[in-house]
Specification:
It comes from Yanshouia hominis. This protein is α+β, with helices and mostly antiparallel strands. About 35% of the residues lie in helices and about 25% in strands. Bound molecules: flavin-adenine dinucleotide.
């Protein structure tokens, strides 16, 4: 039987473009389909347009950053670790730099350079790109045979890779088609939900502080007494609650009922309670007759002071020299752990990453091939894998894409060799 291609890749995002080029480089004829006219639409908006392309870390740090199913990624990580991803882009003519937290960006701060590099790599290896929306998978007796497309086309392929992404930012093309395609092949798809997203909080004062950004604060997320997340960084108040880098990372630890979780902001992480108390005493010593409401300007952003005053339970009009030692201690405790109540996560469409997806136990971690349908491969966010911020999610896409691409190319070579053997026989 003549095939339209050896490998048909559905989805030209980070995972699909990497897989397509790697397979083509190893001799496979590759068709790359995306419903968008151009490749890498989501990549273009990553890292606020700068693209945090990977994290320059070792395996342990990487696996620690992966929130769901990290062990599934051992082989993919080893096949294409961050240092190889970096080498790949540098070889494609994109100089990189490493910033705080080992986050890697193009020196140009332009995500488009990463997309162009992938396009050049795919072009140079003969990948044929087509704008096409894949509607269904074609299979026969447990073996994939091709796909059909929205315009009524049918394409035969020896192998098919699904790299259609998750459900986040659907305007980029990631609308969950891959979940339906995987299910049609008999795969279990775990419900998609938001990971790395802003949080809706109960406290009305968050909305009143909309636009206020806090730098160098520590956000702590607890479930019961257990601290799940505690990091220093930046957060901001919005009309619905809180957002920003710290909040996104904390959100990936929230699973199920939000009322089980408690959030605290340490507004003065650089001062332990004793030093904070001394600082309050020193400040207030210089403003003896001032009312409590007007006494926190040196310590806090102006807009936040009335909120802290009202939560402290100390009468706003009290003169600072009349504030008791106990009241000062409880104020210090409040500044070290301002409590917030999480109502819910923002919807998955607004999340940076989708949690849930194709169940990893039904996919071979050594090849990314389906354990249910021969010749069907998976890569990227479509799988039930997600990580915290820092370049780890793109690393997941590149590692799994790479492994799927080289595995499919290897399988194709084997099929061709078998065909030759049978022919000779
Ligand atoms: C705003 C934002 C910023 C981010 N910043 C970063 C960052 O800096 N660093 C980081 O590591 N991660 C970041 N991420 C996460 C990262 O972008 C994703 O995890 C990653 O792009 C997933 O790659 P993917 O190839 O699996 O899917 P995608 O990049 O989503 O690609 C999937 C492709 O499949 C196509 N497709 C879908 N269905 C079909 C169909 N039926 N037929 C044909 N084509 C189809 C889509 O059009 C899309 O192009 C960010 C995400 C967002 C939303």
């Amino acid at each position: 039987m003549g095939y339209d291609c050896d490998l048909l890749v559905v989805g030209a995002g980070a995972a699909g473009t990497m897989a397509a080029g790697q397979a083509a480089r190893r001799g496979a004829s590759v068709l790359l389909f995306d419903k968008n006219a151009r490749i890498g639409r989501k990549l273009m908006i990553t890292g606020k347009g700068r693209c945090n392309v990977t994290n320059n870390c070792g395996r342990d740090r990487f696996l620690e950053a992966v929130r769901r199913n990290p062990r599934f990624l051992y082989s993919a990580f080893d096949a294409f670790p961050p240092q190889e991803v970096m080498r790949f882009f540098e070889e494609q003519g994109v100089p990189l730099k490493t910033e705080r937290g080992a986050r890697v960006f193009p020196v140009s701060d332009r995500a488009v350079d990463i997309v162009d590099a992938l396009r050049r790599f795919d072009d140079a290896n003969g990948v044929r790109f087509r704008q096409n929306r894949v509607l269904s998978l074609l299979t026969r007796e447990g073996v994939v045979t091709g796909v059909s497309t929205a315009d009524g086309g049918r394409f035969s392929a020896r192998t098919v890779l699904l790299a259609t992404g998750g459900l986040s930012y659907p305007l980029t093309g990631s609308t969950g088609d891959g979940y339906r395609l995987a299910e049609s092949a008999g795969h279990t798809v775990l419900p998609a939900a938001a990971s790395l997203t802003a949080l809706i909080t109960e406290e009305p004062w968050c909305g009143e502080l909309m636009g206020l950004s806090l730098k160098n604060v520590t956000l702590t997320l607890k479930k019961g007494k257990k601290v799940l997340f505690s990091e220093l960084g930046e957060l901001m108040f919005t009309h619905f609650g809180i957002s920003g880098p710290l909040v996104l990372s904390a959100s990936s630890y929230i699973d199920g009922d939000c009322s089980d979780y408690a959030l605290f902001i340490d507004l003065k992480p650089g001062l332990d309670p004793g030093r904070l108390d001394a600082r309050l005493l020193r400040d207030w010593d210089e403003m003896k007759n001032r009312a409590f409401i007007n006494s926190l300007d040196r310590l806090l952003p102006r807009a936040l002071a009335p909120v802290v005053v009202s939560l402290s339970g100390i009468d706003a009009k009290t003169q600072v020299n009349a504030v008791t030692r106990e009241q000062r201690a409880s104020l210090a405790a409040l500044l070290k752990a301002l409590p917030l109540t999480v109502c819910s996560l923002r919807p998955v469409e607004e999340a940076v990453v989708t949690r849930g997806g194709v169940k990893t136990s039904e996919v071979s971690p050594k090849t990314m091939e389906s354990k249910l349908v021969k010749g069907l491969y998976f890569a990227g966010e479509l799988l039930d894998l997600d990580a915290v911020t820092g370049g780890f999610n793109l690393q997941i896409a590149f590692s799994t894409g790479y492994l799927a691409g080289i595995s499919a190319a290897g399988a194709i070579l084997e099929m061709q060799n078998q065909g030759n053997e049978e022919h000779r026989g």
